[in-house]
What we know:
The chain is mainly beta. It folds into two domains: about 5-135, no CATH class; about 140-325, Jelly Rolls (Sandwich), CATH 2.60.120. It is built from one helix and 19 strands. It has one helix at about 5-15, and strands at about 30-35, 40-45, 50-55, 60-70, 75-85, 95-105, 115-125, 150-155, 160-165, 170-180, 190-195, 205-210, 215-225, 230, 245, 255-265, 295-305, 315, 325. The strands form three sheets. Strands 1-2-3-4-5-6-7 form a seven-stranded antiparallel sheet, with helices on one face. Strands 8, 9, 11, 14, 15, 17 and 18 form a seven-stranded antiparallel sheet that branches.
Amino acid sequence: MFNYARSLAFYGLLAFGIASAPMAHAQFPSGRQTTPDGKQVLVNRSQGGLQWAISYSPNDGTITGNVFDPGGGDPSYIWCERVGDDGVMDPSAVQIDWRCEGGSPCEQSPCLASNWTDLGVVPLGGFFFLPARDPFVTLQLPEAYCDPIILGFVNEFAGSPSWEVDTVLCPYASMTQPSLTPVEANEDIWVRVWNYALEEPRDGTGYFTLMLGDQVIYNEEMPIPKQSGLLGPFGVPEGEVGICLRPNISAPAGTPVSWNIQLREPEVATQNASSRSDSGSDGSSDLAGPLHSTPGVVHMIEITVGSNCLGEPAGRRLTTNDAWTHVSPGLPTLP
């Protein structure tokens, strides 16, 4: 009989990097893919001596799929729901808590829910699901989908066309495009992101995250409500505006530049598998959700390279605002 508890517990250790070396006897190729509608991440990889063929649906925060023993035998089935994370805003490094159940093949109808076994809470590292079409997908909370009709290219600021995200119907959105110019290590990158007042009475939190290639180069946490202004540590005094970065990485032209904006309700659950004890016995979760219906707008204005980081866009354009592609899942498919 397949030992779910042993296998998932061991895999939980892999997620923390304790035993993350590739298995010497893996018999199947590994890979990740995103479905054409962008709503599922498909994972096929060998870990812990087993072959995992699963799908992750970020809109509802569930994992489903099969686990195979390369040595033979029937496949086994898993179903997990996301119940928390450690709050790290790096899609590869974040540790996610999943409450899982396991089942054996059903040979005859009806296939009963009572045939599934509770496996407890299992921690998995975000790296397991990457790469994906949305490079921030492991940071997406369940139900944090965006209505795609309320984001896009606008010409609202005189002389500075921008990419706009309306936060009323969009608590989570990811955008990406290939870079227009190479970036040298420690070269200045200057970013201007403007928000109109984000109005929310529940004291939530907003996050802006910027990636170059597969590396996070900037993350800002924004208490909500938030007054209008430019994002960044400099605030808005004259000569000190926006975000100034000097990442110690080089990237050729064509490297993906990606950014994500998301709004979360207060007190996002951060307990890990060893400390979580406050979830209901009925399978309910204390995971905080996305902050829907937050009046406000966020604008990506520009990203340049080689500027002097003093508010003068003297450098090269890294991106253009009419070239962003929205890559995060949109509204769920209606039945």
